[in-house]
Amino acid sequence: MAHVLIVDDSPTEVYVLKAMLERHGHRISVAENGTDAVAFARQELPDIVLMDIVMPGISGFQATRLLSKDPATSSIPVIVVSTKDQEADRVWALRQGARDYIVKPASETDLIAKIQMALGR
Q: What is the pTM of this model?
């Protein structure tokens, strides 16, 4: 299955997302902030990134923009997974280059469907 980079500073959220994804056979890597996520994605080229917004250092919006503008990582789909549920947040995430937006808590069915869609499966 896919190599998924989970970017979130909450150990609880990482645990929940990781458990859901591993049940579907995905390989998981984790970054705790946007800076580490960008560095990891440039080096390891995961198949897809699940990006939180509110984190220490650079935000998920900034990290998504960096990944989408970099030719080395622009083909890696980013799905924002955030507690921010305002329409403006969703629109801004998509304008930064995110392929989709999920409001936490993510349902397993919705998460897997959006990952498959983003990966073209």
A: 0.97
